[in-house]
Amino acid sequence: MQIGYTLMTEQSAPRDLVRHAGLAERAGFDFEVMSDHYFPWLDEQGHAGYAWAMLGAVTQVTDRIELMTYVTCPTVRYHPAVVAQKAATVQQLSGGRFTLGVGSGENLNEHVVGRGWPTVHVRQAMLVEALEIINQLFDGGYVDYDGQHFTVSSAKVWDLPETRVPIAAAVSGPAGIARLAPLVDHMVAVEPSADLVSQWAGSGARGERRIGQMPISWDPDRDRAVARAHEQFRWFGGGWAVNADLPVPSGFAGATQFVRPEDVAESIPCGPDVDAVVAAAAEWREAGFTDLALVQIGDERQEDFLDWARGELLPALRDA
Prior knowledge:
Blueprint: E1 2-7, H1 14-27, E2 31-34, H2 51-61, E3 66-69, H3 80-94, E4 98-102, H4 107-110, H5 120-139, E5 143-146, E6 151-155, E7 167-170, H6 174-180, E8 186-188, H7 194-200, E9 210-216, H8 222-233, H9 240-243, H10 249-255, H11 261-267, H12 274-287, E10 291-296, H13 302-319
Parallel strand pairs: 1-2, 1-10, 2-3, 3-4, 4-7, 7-8, 8-9, 9-10
Antiparallel strand pairs: 5-6
Helix pairs in contact: 1-2, 1-13, 2-3, 3-5, 8-11, 12-13
């Protein structure tokens, strides 16, 4: 299982995030994923820089590490024709190291353009059309498209990379897999579900990577680690069905007002214990995931975390 590092645009300023990307490559991580939000989930996180500008910068401070959006919504805030152009550009800048991760989005980020927030069935249909458009543009040449949700008129991506941009789609069940897998290469999921992995097998996807993400809160002081995880990541346990519909950070604060620090610590490894992280990661490996991106919660200990990861965590995970 490849181990990745998450560039959390919601918890670090843009220049810091780019610096962390270079440090993570030198620490020995296999890949890096970047969130793409207009808002943080909670005010305490405090940031939400533009992911695509930061990705361009990250391509220039890294040399070997794979890069990925985790995930971009190519349906409301961004038109899919523009996402195809952005992805092709990052692929060229990175020398073929980029994967376009996509999902059906969250109200938190997409409502800002004033188009309303569609129902989940409409969002899935929009994502299917978006992927059809993106794939056609990656094929090259001029593209015209007249769908129920999107229209494209004589679009063309002029700077296509030598290596076609792989696409990974976030899925949560068999219906999403059936619709999206034939249009993408790889699977993204937010829980270590062996059922999702088995459903993905033979689904028609072009590739075989199953990519997950796991938050941790490393700190030499476990109490500080738990407090930081509660302050900034208590939203995490709400589940996709709830999180996708909340419109602003205050909604996430209200929805999680009764979540206790001990509740967060039960689901997120907190503190300096390497074995706790290895045990949590094992659930993803045993479920059949090929890639796991770690999230170090909070901005203030990122560089110390990366030192710890290089010296202790990554060797322990690879030994396991």
